[in-house]
Amino acid sequence: MIRNLQEELLDLQNVFIGLVMMFAGVIFFGSILNASLVNLTERTREIATFRVLGYGPWQIGGLFLKESMLVNLLGTLVGLPLGYSLAWLISTLYNTEMFRFPLVSPPSVWMITIAIAVGFAGLAHLVVQRVIFRLDYLEALNVKE
After folding, report:
1. How remote is the C-alpha of 111 from its chain's centroid?
2. How many Å apart are CA 117 and CA 114, to the nearest integer?
3. What does the H/E/C string look like for 37-98?
4. What pLDDT, in 10s, does the model give residues 78-95?
């Protein structure tokens, strides 16, 4: 009976974790993409100037990729301890006489989190790179401020 209860709880917890990860991934991807596209729109004239100076679209995209990865990795590194603190708080609040949820956080989970964050940032950058390829550089240079 105890084994069945544990299996049921673990199955339910795995479904819940999967759904939370899916929603978090969608929000993370959307926020990265939004920030990157806003940054790209604000710097259209700068991109056009780089293009006229002889930079290729991949080189320009590389600049945006480096900037985006730096910001996202810093945000991930700040968010990891905050997420751990939140998980500790939740496990402490659910610590009752009937149930106890120990907080287990192996280093592999932290590495997977960082890898997923880098992967979502890379996917968002593919959209940004596509916009850079389609940008009309001559029209961007003619815009009056």
Report:
1. 14
2. 5
3. HHHHHHCHHHHHHHHHCCCCHHHHHHHHHHHHHHHHHHHHHHHHHHHHHHHHHHHHHCCCCC
4. 989 998 999 899 888 888
Write out the H or E segment, with its range, that includes residue 25: helix 2-42
Which tokens go with 25?
A: 């991934």
Q: How far apart are CA 132 and CA 61, in angstroms?
A: 7
pTM of the model: 0.75
Amino acid (1-letter code) at residue 110: W
- The angle at the Cα of 94, spanning 108 to 28, to the nearest 5 degrees, equals 45
The type of residue at 107 is P
Q: 122: closest CA among 19, 28, 18, 38? A: 28
